[in-house]
Amino acid sequence: MAKAKVTNISTGPRGAYLDGALVMAQVGETIEADDFAEEWFAKATAKDAKEAAKTDQA
For residue 45, what pLDDT is reported? Predict the structure, then answer.
């Protein structure tokens, strides 16, 4: 995958990779990553990434 800013939309802290290094993200936090699970992260440019994080916590 190409580098992208992604937001953690899961219900807990999750990890992704940037240039082979692990980067952790708390719920709702945006990080830069090039290898991440799409079920846990949404592209930060997605209009509702933060709303999705709030919905997942309910």
Answer: 72
Q: Identify the H or E element spanning 10.
A: none
Give the span between the Cα atoms of 50 and 2, in whole angstroms.
Answer: 22
Q: Measured between alpha carbons, how far is 32 from 29 in angstroms, rounded to an integer?
A: 10
For the chain, 58 residues long, give each residue's pLDDT as a single digit of tens: 789 999 999 999 999 999 999 999 999 999 999 999 999 999 997 555 556 556 555 5
**Amino acid identity at 18:** L
42 within 8 A of 7, measured Cβ to Cβ: yes
Residue 9 neighbours by CB distance under 10 Å: 25
Torsion of CA 40, 46, 47, 49, to 10 degrees: 10
